[in-house]
Amino acid sequence: MAHQQPDRIPVYFGGTSSFLTDAQYRRLKDHLRIQGEPDPYRKGHTGTIYDPQILDALGVDVRFLVYRLEDYGIREVVDEDHMIDEWGIMLVRSGNMWSRMSTPLKDADMDQIRGYQFPDPGRDTGNGGLEQEAKDLREHTEYALVARSVHSASFMELGCWLRGSEDFLCELVMEEESCHVLLDKIMDVQMGYYERFLQKVGPYVDIVETSEDFGTQQSLFLSPQTYRNMIMPRRQKINSVIHRYAPQAKILHHTCGAVRKLIPDLIDTGIDILNPIQPNLPGMDARELKEEFGDKICFCGGIDMQYAINGSFQEIDREVSRCREQLGYGGGYLYSTSNHIQEDTPVENVLRLFGDFQRF
């Protein structure tokens, strides 16, 4: 992370956007004959289990600290296929996937937004041993320690889920006052969570994760100017809270998609590591990104999750070699996948991706 060539490229896996769906986790666990299973740290998502035993088996160089939300981030369980999350959004199960199927603030005016029941970050349950866990990992292991993102979504996703995508994206461009009210509410919740989290683990961590998707497979959800006007000042405030409680830590930000045009602004926001460097998209050529931004920001990810990982061992080997060659020189690269490994990926491919990484 200091942009110096290391003895070997570190392996980063298990975070907010680069781990395993629950179905894949259980397949890999069974294949490796790993016993036991930790309680989920959240519900209503496709990846809800963080198990360090998997990281041990795959040779991963980091360990994660997870801030558990009250009641697993769920306000109400309707039945086994329907839940309401802490933001009041209905979640519906379809197979192993969960989809958001309501927009509780779609027609709300500013007074209704102000009076809405947003999550209360002051309610802290299930994190009593978190500080001791961080202290023990710092004192008794050589892993880099990472504070996982308190949410897997932020302003963009939550705004679309609460208001409806069409309405919220229009409000962002029009800079309606109601949009500012909602964004400030989201910011206050997330700042509160990070404050509570980092009060416990801030002195011990090397990286703090944040997460917010800005890109599609082709371009951005919003223009760089709209980002600067509506999102950037709030993102900077969240980053300032992180730096207040963990001044030594680097900030990793996850954003999927074709986000090349936004990278200079993300750097100005104060992030140190960009994840996931999703390949095969316009503007996301790894070699070009490294040449243009490699002295200003670190890269985490890069491994193709749409094609190569489900291919032959030879295709996986070529993908690993590509990332090492294009991103690994001169330091500033954390080897990782560009998203969660899905259940249709053969277990043998997962082991090939990680187990043989250092031989290249």
Describe the 3D structure:
Helix 5 crosses helix 6 and helix 7 packs parallel to helix 8. The chain has a single domain, classed as TIM Barrel, CATH 3.20.20. A hairpin with a 2-residue loop joins strand 4 and strand 5. The mean pLDDT is 94. It contains twelve helices and eleven strands. The two termini are 21 Å apart. The protein is α/β, with parallel strands linked by helices and 360 residues long. The strands form two sheets. It has a seven-stranded parallel β-sheet with strand order 1-6-7-8-9-10-11. A four-stranded antiparallel β-sheet has the order 2-3-4-5, with no helix packed on it.
Based on secondary structure, the structural category is alpha/beta
Topology, number of strands? 11
Straight-line distance between termini: 21 Å
* Strand percent estimate: 5-15%
Shape: globular
| Overall tally of structural domains | 1
Q: Give the strand order of the largest sheet, numbering strands 1, 2, ... along the chain.
A: 1-6-7-8-9-10-11
- Percent helix among the residues? 25-40%
For the biggest sheet, the summary is: 7 strands, parallel
CATH C-level class: Alpha Beta
Assign the CATH topology: TIM Barrel
* Uncertain segments: none
N-to-C order of helices and strands: HHEEEEEHHEHHHEHEHEHEHEH
Rg: 20 Å
Count of helix runs: 12
CATH architecture: Alpha-Beta Barrel
Overall pLDDT confidence: 94
